[in-house]
Input
Amino acid sequence: MKRRGPYAKGQERRDEILRAAVEVISREGYRGASLSQIGRSIGIDSAHIIYYFSSREVLLQEVLRMWDEGNAAELTADTDVFAWLVDGARRNTRTPGLVQLYTAFAAEAVDASHPAHEFFRARFAVLQAYIADEIRKRQAAGSVTPTLDADHAAMMLIAQSDGLQVRWLVDRSIDMAAALETEIDLLLGNGEGRK
Output
C-alpha cells in the first residue's frame, strides 16, 4: 500500500530532484551542475532543493548512492561479475558527469571525516567480495589457476577499473570497456575472461 499525505509527496519531490540532478550532472559534470540549474530543470528554485537536501554536497552524495544502487541492482548471484564490470564501463561512457562525480568524491573520501568515506569503504568491500567469490568459483571449476589470490586480484581489478575511469576522463579516446576486458582476461589467464 502506498503512503499518502505529506510524507509521500515529500518523498516524490525528493526523488524528482534526485532524478533531475542525475540528468544535469550526467550532461554538465558535477562542477557544472549548480543547484539553480538542477532546480530550473524541474521548475523549482534552489532554496527548495535545500529544503530536501541540506547542501549541494549532500545532494551529490545521494546522487552517487542512487547511481550505485541502480548499477548494483543488476548484480545478482547468477550475474557474470566480469561481464557486469565490462558493461558498467561501457555504460559509464554515456554519463561522463557521473563518472567525474564518482572519481572526485572517491578521492575526497580518503579523508575519514568526509561524509562519503563510509559509502566508499562499504562499496569497495562489497564489490571486492563479489569479484573474489567469482574468482573462487572459477578456481573450483578449474578454469582459473588455484594459485591466484582471489582477494588480492579482486582489489587490483577494482583499482584498475577506477584508474581507467580517470584516464578516460582525461582522454575520451580510451575504450574503457575493451581495456577492462583485456585486464580481466590477463588476470584470469588463458583468455578465460567471461566464460
Summary: The first helix runs from residue 6 to 28. DSSP finds nine helices and no strands in the chain.
